[in-house]
Write a structure and sequence with these properties.
about 35% helix, single chain, about 300 residues, 9 helices, globular, two-stranded antiparallel sheet
């Protein structure tokens, strides 16, 4: 197999983690007769320092031409001002949008040797093996308008828009059912349909897709209840699917079932196929840039 991989080391411990992953890939290529062409580009804080933008055109072009992208981490105290017009996280959001990476897959399977690292009792964790699908390019993170303004009373106010179209929901939910059909045949859809109109469309669309998979059980949970059930009965879940904001929250919560965010892998997949006929994707650990331990060789 020949594959072109774009490496985005990023900030903090990102370069250290990416360098280690690159060594693993080189060993895999050697052992199994693969050929990986890898090149490295800037994203995030270091890209801002070097080029003034968090996602340079050169980086985006390299990612578009790659079969896969391997990301380290972005951000750090140097660029932490949330009011800054240019921020490292914009590079990550921009890359997801530009590559059409609509489906974020995060497997959650506590390792037997690391059960003690989780704050949950081992008896709660036994049998946990779930896959969380987070819709990645829609919802409140990309909805417009998103702005600060002065209202009629002269007060400053802020507005964010959570918006979903039917096709955005269909493609992520359909993928969830396809994956569940290959696993333990259960999908848990997470929304806030008792309050939000976007969630009511989400739940309605999920029901339509579920009708095409009669062998797959469907469970609907409100996001607040889901955060509770994730800790009280984690082994009951097979495939979870949810919108962007809720997925951001619940996948970080789920990482503690494994003991650490550093133990959670992540794949973000799009609809475009790479040269291997597979969905083009970006792969990363979900931990942050951990600037407090960067450069110490302990990440």
């Amino acid at each position: 197999m020949k594959a072109k991989i774009t490496l985005l080391p990023g900030d903090g411990i990102g370069p250290e983690v990416t360098a280690a992953a690159q060594k693993v890939l080189e060993k895999i290529a050697e052992k199994f007769g693969h050929e990986f062409e890898m090149d490295s580009h800037h994203i995030g804080g270091i890209a801002i320092d070097e080029t003034g933008v968090p996602l340079p055109d050169k980086t985006l072009d390299a990612c578009r031409k790659a079969d896969a992208v391997l990301l380290g981490a972005v951000g750090g105290p140097k660029w932490d001002n949330p009011n800054a017009s240019v921020r490292p996280e914009q590079g990550l959001l921009g890359l997801r949008k530009e590559l059409g990476l609509f489906a974020n897959l995060r497997p959650v399977q506590p390792h037997p040797k690391l059960m003690g690292a989780s704050p949950l009792k081992e008896s709660y964790l036994e049998g946990t093996d779930m896959l969380i699908l987070r819709e990645l390019t829609g919802g409140i993170y990309f909805g417009q308008p998103s702005e600060k303004r002065i209202n009629a009373d002269g007060e400053e106010e802020a507005l964010d828009t959570m918006i979903y179209s039917e096709h955005e929901i269909v493609r992520i939910v359909k993928l969830a059912f396809e994956l569940a059909d290959e696993r333990r045949k259960k999908v848990t859809s997470i929304d806030k349909a008792n309050v939000l109109e976007s969630s009511r469309l989400w739940r309605k669309t999920v029901a339509k897709i579920a009708a095409d998979y009669p062998d797959v059980e469907l469970e609907n949970l409100l996001i607040d209840a889901a955060t509770m059930h994730l800790l009280s009965r984690p082994s009951d879940f097979d495939v979870m699917v949810t919108m962007n904001l809720f997925g951001d929250i619940i996948t970080d919560e789920a990482s503690m079932l494994t003991g650490s965010m550093g133990n959670m892998p992540s794949a973000s997949l799009g609809e475009d196929l790479n040269s291997l006929g597979k969905p083009r994707g970006m792969y990363e650990p979900i931990h942050g840039s951990a600037p407090d331990i960067a450069g110490k060789g302990i990440a």
